[in-house]
Amino acid sequence: MNRTVNRLTTIAGLACAGALSMTTLVQAQQVYPTVDAKLKPTADAFYTSPTSGELAAEVPGNVLRYRALPAASLGTSLKEGWQVMYRSTNTKNQPVAMVTTVLIPKAAPATGRKLLSYQSFYDSLTLDCSPSGQATSNTLLEKTFFQSALNKGYIVTMADYEGLESQWIVAKNSGQGVLDGIRATLRFSNSGLNALTPVGMLGYSGGGFATAWAAELAAGYAPELKIIGAAQGGLPVNPINVAKKVDGGFWAGAYLGAVVGLSRAYPELKVEDYATPEGIVAIKDIGTRCLTGSPNLLTAYAYKKGSDLLKDPNFLNLPEMQAINRENTMGQNTPKIPLQIFQSIGDQVMPIADVDSLAAYYCANNATLEYKPVAGTDHVLGAMGLSGGLTYLLNRFDGKVAPNNCK
To answer: What does the alpha-carbon distance between residue 372 and residue 335 come to, in Å, rounded to a whole number?
Structure first.
């Protein structure tokens, strides 16, 4: 009799604990009013991070708050759209908050939904150029690259993977931000998804960087995700090699912006200490700009040289810069998922030799890889490869055998 009572008491206790856990989770998912499209993200309280203590109490990928996108920003193919803030982990292994945009099309089936994680090439040092901000203001030109997925009924999630501090070109912060954005979308009650939902990842340039790092980190950081494949192109495999290639050219802003972005993730790199007086002014200004929006980084710093703004002409070769670069250079883990890499041979920003080496590393470590070097294009036109990348992923969703041209 006593054993029966004890057993019933234990079961009741576990049920209460489970109920309390569920209640806590629901309470953490605060509902905010619909997005005010007139507010820029830098002036919007939704983007204010919870405290470090509040973040530490959540597991990676947990939803913290969410709100609906205004009807005017949805377009004809969408049933609803949401901004979701979630808990992630930065390069220093500290809990941080990030935001993803979840788009649910009218064509989405009631059950058996599939998820495309699209990584924007927003390359920004300000939240105002973030995918979530651009989706609200209808300035996100990249929607053309995943519109056909929406038309087929796929849910799309689009993380602000640089985080609330706009840490541009930071490997773990970006890759883990993507993976936790996927987790958050699966856990978001309005998405109609669950832990068994198949996921594909797609991105180009800065978005390719985030996609590639998510693929490299997935097995160790988020092994439970059912990722069917990743397609990425325009890859900045080695950030310092990219900086050296663009220094003094039209794309020079990418070098200077990357230095500022990395310094936000590595506060021990006090970049102002290395700057000339002109450089100190430029660093502050660069921190308000982005590559694909306004105020624009490329046009403001085209044809500038690092030596114009930094005291040491060998700044990129300094031991502290080389150490940071090693942490943010691809090819540290071989993804366990099928991959496609598409890369312009004539890319004026990303060294093709670095991408060749990355593909060779993956192949040598038994990756399933379709590597597609493309002639006759540059970095801008190379983005057209996203169409083929999406087709690659749709074939993986359909269960077709992944191509592999590793020799």
So the answer is: 17
